[in-house]
Design goal:
The structure is a single chain. This protein has 11 helices and 13 strands. The chain is an alpha/beta fold. It has 2 domains: about 150 residues, 3-Layer(aba) Sandwich (Rossmann fold), CATH 3.40.50; about 170 residues, 2-Layer Sandwich (Nucleotidyltransferase, domain 5), CATH 3.30.420. The strands form 3 sheets. Strands 2-3-4-1-5-6 form a 6-stranded mixed sheet, with helices on one face. The chain has a 5-stranded mixed sheet with strand order 9-8-7-10-11. Helix 9 crosses helix 11. The relative contact order is 0.12. The C terminus is likely disordered.
Length: about 375
């Protein structure tokens, strides 16, 4: 199901119903932090029944007078699951747990009691969860599969969030997170690149135009790339890229570019070598905003850039390096289930990151409901 469809409500209703009937139930979530909303659900429903129903917060255990119980477990610490026997296991956000946890840890706990398992999740590419879902569609005997988009939730707030998501995230993200589609991994992250390569180069600032810089640092193997983004035109109008350049010279080139365009902000990567360079620019009183790259922040950054290309809300220079790096940019799913965004092996993404830092930060920020 899509985001905010109501998976936790459904999972919790199943778990508490089975436990009330005297069954042993495991509600499995990907990590310990994921267990917080799960436990809050149990407390909200069973708190008014205190005395009849016992809640053990430290153990995250709900016990019913019937002898049934619900235990909340995290898949990243599966030792507690091993050795148990369950009538029902609900795996919440199943696509985020390792396949081995499902096959080697969870399934054996159902053997003694011929138990039932529900795998509930938003898709994450064509992984093991997709294979289970596909097999269940074709089975028709002891397995079944369903899907539903976020819009199937009738709450007005979710309807509004779904409509906003259609406008504010990339097509790939919308289809996966909100339409609950299994998107094939690999390549094709940035689309319509050549169509948008119509920006007119600028040598210096135009009157009454505002500018932003994006900086991706490099030294030898990787290039340093500086993208100049005209926010008035929503266009990348200048690009400086260089390798094997001393850091002092890099700072000098950046300052010279800033003198010509007078940017309102310079978004520069802060990781690793970027830390002292950002500090040096700040000492020069340049309007630097450091950007810390993590797997999540990079994914958000690239998703915003992909949306800009798809909607045609930005243009870029007809620069062969920039176009080649954008078109080659790919998404690769790792064994852990996480998605790695970057250039294919042997290629670079310096201009892509610089462009994303310059272009996407101007969009209004928002959060999912």
């Amino acid at each position: 199901m899509g985001r905010r469809w109501g998976k936790t409500l459904m999972a919790g209703s199943l778990a508490l119903y089975y436990a009330n009937e005297g069954k042993s139930v495991a509600w499995v979530v990907p990590t310990y932090k994921n267990a917080r909303p799960t436990w809050r659900f149990c407390e909200a429903r069973c708190g008014p029944l205190a005395g009849a129903v016992r809640l053990n917060k430290s153990e995250r255990l709900v016990e019913f007078p019937s002898g049934g119980w619900v235990g909340v477990y995290s898949a990243d610490n599966d030792v507690a699951i091993r050795g148990e026997a369950f009538d029902l296991v609900v795996v919440d956000e199943a696509a985020q747990i390792a396949e081995e946890t499902y096959t080697d840890v969870i399934l054996p706990t159902l053997a003694d009691r011929d138990g039932r398992c529900y795998l509930i999740s938003t898709p994450r590419g064509r992984d093991w969860f997709w294979r289970e879902w596909t097999a269940a569609l074709a089975d028709g005997t002891d397995r079944a599969a369903w899907t539903a988009p976020s819009s199937a939730n009738p709450l007005p707030a979710i309807q509004r969030a779904t409509a906003l998501a259609r406008l504010r995230v990339s097509d790939r993200t919308y289809r996966q997170e909100w339409l609950a589609e299994f998107i094939e991994d690999g390549g094709g992250v940035l689309r319509n690149v050549r169509r948008q390569a119509t920006a007119v180069p600028q040598d210096r600032a135009l009157p009454d135009h505002a500018y932003r810089f994006g900086v991706d640092w490099g030294r030898t193997a990787d290039a340093t790339a500086i993208a100049v983004f005209d926010t008035t035109l929503s266009a990348c109008v200048a690009l400086d890229r260089f390798t094997d350049t001393a850091f002092s010279v890099q700072l000098g080139r950046l300052k010279a570019l800033a003198e010509r365009f007078t940017p309102t902000v310079i978004v520069a990567e802060r990781n690793a070598m970027g830390e002292p360079l950002v500090e040096a620019l700040q000492r020069e009183s340049l309007p630097v905003r450091p950007f810390v790259t993590t797997a999540q922040s990079k994914a958000d950054l690239i998703d915003a850039l992909a949306l800009a290309f798809e909607t045609g809300s930005l243009t870029i220079l007809d620069d062969p390096v920039l176009i080649a790096e954008c078109e080659a940019y790919e998404a690769t799913r790792l064994p852990s289930g996480l998605v790695r965004y970057g250039a294919p092996a042997g290629l670079h993404d310096d201009t892509v990151i610089a462009l994303a830092l310059a272009a996407t930060q101007s969009a209004p920020s928002w959060s999912l409901v």
